Write the structure tokens for this entry.
Amino acid sequence: MIRLGRLDLTRWGSFTDRTLDFGEADGRLHLVYGGNAAGKSTTRRATTALLFGIPTRTPDAHTHDYADLRIGAQLLTDDGAVEVVRRKGKVNTLLGPDGQPLHDDPIGVALHALTAEAYGGLFEISHESLVDGGRELLAGHGAVGESLFAAAAGTGRLHRLLGALDSDAADLFKTGGRNARLNVALAEHSTATKELSAATVRPTRAGELRRAASDTRRVIEELDGTIREHERECGRLRRLKAVKPMLARHSELVLELEGLGKPPALGSDAAERRGAAQRDRDDSDRASRTAQGSLATLRQTHSQQADPGDMLSHSAAITETHSQIAAIRKAASDRRKREGELQREEARLEGLLARIGAGMQVDELDVHIAQERTRQSLDRCLDSRGEIAERHRSARTRTTDAERALEAAQNELTSLPEAVGTAALRAAVRAATKLGPVEDQAAEHRATADALRAEAENRLARLAPRPTPLEELERQSIPTRDAIDRVLATKLELDDQQSAIDNEREQIDRRAADLAGRGAGLRARGQAPTAQELEAGRTQRDEDWQTVRRALVTPAPDADQRAEQFERSMAGADQVADARAAQADKLAQAAEIDATNARTAAEREALGERVGKLERRRSLLETEWQTAWKPSEMRPPAIVDAPEWLREHESICKLVQEARSAAGKAELAEQAAARHGTALLEHLADTNGPAPAGSTLEGAIALAESLAGDFDDQNAKRRTTQKAVEDAERTLARERSDLAQAETEHEAWREQWQRLRATYGLDSDVAPEDASQMLRTIDDALSARDSVGALRHRIEGIDRDSQEFAAEVARICRAVAPDLSGVDPEDAASEVMDRLGNAQRAREAIDGLNAQIERHEGDLADANQRRERAQEQLDAMVGAAGATEEDELADIERRSARAAELRHEIPTCEREVAQAGEEAFEGLFAAATEFSGEQLDADISEHGRKLKALREERDRAQEAAFEARDQLERAERSDCAGKAAEKAQQHLAGARDLAERYAVARLSSCLLRETIERYRTKHQGPMLARANELFPSLTRETFTELYVDWNDAEEPILVGRDKDGRPLRVEHMSDGTREQLFLALRIAAIERYVDSSGGVPVLFDDVFLESDDPRSERILSALADLAVRTQVIVFTHHRHLVALAQQALDPSRLALHDLDGGPPQLRADGQAALRRAAA
Amino acid sequence: MKLIHAADIHLDSPMRGLARYDGAPVEQLRLATRAALANLVDLAIDEEADALLIAGDLFDGDWPDFGTGAHFAREMNRLRDAQIPVVTVAGNHDAASRITRTLRMPDNVRTLSAEAPDTAVYEELGLAVHGQSFATAAVLDDLSAGYPVPLPGYVNVGLLHTSANGRLGHEPYAPCRPDRLAEHGYSYWALGHVHQREILVADPPVVFAGCLQGRHVREAGAKGATVVQIDDGRVVSLEERALDDVRWAICEVDAGDAADENDVFGRMSDQLRQAATECGDRLLAVRVKVFGATEAHAELVRDVDRLRHEAAVVATDAACGGAWVERVVLRTSPPSAISPEGDDAYAEVVRAIRVAANSTAVLDQLADELGPLAAKLPGALLADFDPTDPDTISGLLSEVERTLPVRLLEEPA
């Protein structure tokens, strides 16, 4: 049980420090009044938030921040009063008066397993929920199960949910349907599967295709062979047909040859030769005549030419002398230039001699020429001086540099630290690194273990009843799942039996009540007439009959009166008889009632026995249950909760195992980290490196890697420097060697210089530079001397040539032109040369005439000879042709040439026939003789027809082969099957999803309906009994009864009976009546809950919205009755309801709270609690 | 020497569990196993590998299409052109495969004998690959026990299709002990059959290469081959190379303490984006699993389709190569669950569900209810989801327990 003694809206919604005091001892109906926006809904939400926690998002954080929201309360539970404060958060949101989280949750214990949502459905009742409930009753047509369950769940959505589940299922799948989504998906999958099957080329099919391709290839080859044979034969026939005209031509040629007789074989050029000979003879005659005329003319011209004389015999000397004229003139000019040059050279020579030595003569220069070898040595010696000196200087410089470099490298090497080995350190780092982020992993595993353990602890703390502590949880001996299931099944079976017994008892009670009513009715209908009265009645009737009879026999004046008397007697007797019969019937009924009562009593007794048995079985079951749990040393859970408890227990055990596993992994990782960390530290110590700042492996790895890197750099630098020292040493040695060699070379030069200087006769004190200068001067003097000599020789030569020229001209003039004596030699030479030209031209003219005469004489002789030869040839031809005259030759030659042509043409024709017929001529000739043209045409046509058929057959075979190959190739390249399989899988996956959704919808529907039926079976009697009490009251006796009837489908439905005794089904009730019926059922359900599970605050929010005052009054009264059992808080914004409640209810049953009033003061203890909580 | 070690190609085996929905990237989902095989061949050529080793299961055992084998042979031809030899052993699937029996491999492919341990020797490489193919689909003997001793002067590699010392979800074929493999004297053991990559022994390496391409959500994560570098007869490096064309992933979204649906969507978006980033430019096939106690539970349960839609939109937006949401599994719970302990209607519902889950009789009854459904489902689906199976119904009842009370409380008007 839980009630609110006080609700503190400390910081909630628009409230700050507002308190509603409900009082400690209660049983009153709490009516909370507030106008619009006064905070009724806020207060209602505060109640829920207090009990179940403040939601993550709430509309009541508009004034205060989320973190500041506080709702306090004094809670009254079975364990007494407790002060609590609720704050917003994820954990530990319920605080005690000291502001500390409450470890024991008094609210959770009191509310059992209620959730906020279930509480809202069950215990928060608004006008809207009643309207929904009324509609729910209408939608369900008052079905008992659904009505009771909907009222118990406080939902107006039950029927809608059932409909939605059925609709979902129907949309998804229908057994014989085609359009439901799953049916469609399955059809699509089936289609895709067929596509896959069609797209799949099985290996056997591929083999078939291969074989088909191979077979058709063989057939094609055979057909090709046959076709080739036919083509050959057909071709032969065609060729035969083609050569037939050629064979006819051949026959014509043979006949023509025979017609020519036997002419002599003159050769094919006989006519040509004859023509040529005749043309030669005629040409010779013409040439002879032309040569004779030309000779006569030439000879006449020759006799008229003059003689050139003796001039031509001196032509060479004259021409030579004439050719020297230009040279003689040029030499005279050159001599003048050479004279000038000679004077300049002689002056230069004189100056050089003076520089060599005073009084130095030209002849003395010969001394130096005599020492040519010495001079050459001296030159080489002086030339090499600079190079040797440079080498010596350079070697010295380099040696000094090398010495300095060596010293610097040695100094650097000395300054570097010694090398440190890092291989072991590197190996340790690699080994540690290979582990990965082992410490992170360890921490992660450790965190996982802690989290899992915390979760296990947390869940263990929530597990009620609580088993052993976590450490012993796995060892705890608890019953097996099978044992629990077995006990649970037994308990459910017993519950079902109990429900059945309750129902039966209820029916028996109802039957008994009915019988009792009927008995009372019977009793109320008075006493039955006795037998004496019946007998008296009959006697009176008989007497009256006798009187009537007598009157009939003997008419009497009072016959009418007697008849009337008889009729009355008859009626009276009948009445008595009827009364007796009726009484007998009543007696029979009474007897039946008695018998039924007796049966009912027996049934009651049997029921009692069954109850007893049931109780014993319950007791035994309980004992078994307790025994089964005894080894666990804990209070067993409720049987129905045991499977869930066990599941949670197993789940926690699993968490413990996972936590242990994670811890083990963490430990292994930590050990690995420690092992590798230690190894690293040892290696670091070996290297005298610094210790790591922390104790982590990661730090050690980082330090070790850093140090190893430093050591590697350091070692590399030392190796580099060491190499530099060695290089410097090698360089220095090399430079020193070069220096020694240069010094030796320099010394050798010096000795050579001194020797050569002395040998050459240079002064001993002359410097090498001066000696070089001296030698160059001597060379220049010798050169000048040679120039002077050469110039003098040139001038003498010119003079000599001029004299020789003049002498030769004089000699020529004396021989051929004495008239030119005394003339200037150059002019004389020119004149003689002119005369020689004239003589030469005369000579040439005479020689030309002589040559022409000689040639024409030769031509004449040749022409005569040719004529003779041509005539001889013609004569021979006449003889050879067997002719007598030259004129006969042409005809003989024609016949001879034609015969020769035919002899050539006939074999050619035979070759052409053989070539065109592609076989020997004789065979073709014979075959042509054998076949007529018509026969050939017929045979060719027959072969063509066969060939056409064969080729068509081969084309078909080729198409088949191509098709087989194409299919095989397409199969090899195909991915269609794979794609079809993908598609089929996609449809299958879709179908699976839909099937799962259908199954969930179907199971939900089945289980919900079963739950509804189970609830009906269990609660129908008491709930309807209580609702039957409330419903007439809430409807102000418009309805007198609520009972269960059966509809046409034999389903139980709720029916109300109105004040006129008419049954009314819910469909025929007004909306308001249905809402009141729903309210009656809700109140009955709440009372059932309170009776079994204890009281909880029940909140009504303006449920009077559409009720008139009298009905509101009845509702208030019903709620006040409920308030006796559990706390009831009614929120309203109708002021008149307050007055109505004050009027309708005794003040001891009502407590009023006004939200519009000034803020009430918090009580002292509440203030203290809030202050602590706020702090 | 550089070797490529691959296994379990299962060529043309389709992706499973991907149901089509509006916006699903149907076009992007090609034949992923073919693309992965092409990637493997490209890798061998690009890396100038000395040999490719395939440790069995080239094809699915029940896959009969001839084109699949022909495609494999074509890809091997590319390796022949690059002068890269290929050594394979037949796995349990290959032994059952009809393709294997009729397939003509190029001459660079050597399939080791099924009758006795066999050795492929490559003199020019100094490589000896030892192995034995499966003769039948179910080989329960330790094949490795008969493998020959190492050839002196060669790099010796063992090729074996095996379950090793047993792996969950894999048939226990050709069992062996990894430590004994390591002691056999070979430089490297290339194993197949187990689809998850795993290094059983570090030195000498005994390695499951894992499958080349994940085909369903249980094969999530990167899949591919191992590049093995061997110098002086010792393995100096093992490099895992992702070659899959479709990347399977499970995206777990912790909705714990989420205030509302949008909060959950935000968390899901973060997780999906991370998965998409890890996936690269492949097609992402992702299962989204939302769990945790949250006030958004009721909203989520009421509109699972919206959650599915959000997941698809976010995944498609985030993934470069497209994304296919395989399934959205909703495993959230309300902040406080309704207990069967109470004496109210909601507790009655929960109690009925739990009793049903624990009662053989009720399960049978529910199986009868779902019998017509089972009768209509094809065998391929029943193998995975038989609605009449008690365990399946128990699982479905968990879903009913998560959703039914919530819908009863908050079924919208």
User: Anything to note?
Assistant: The mean pLDDT of chain B is 92.
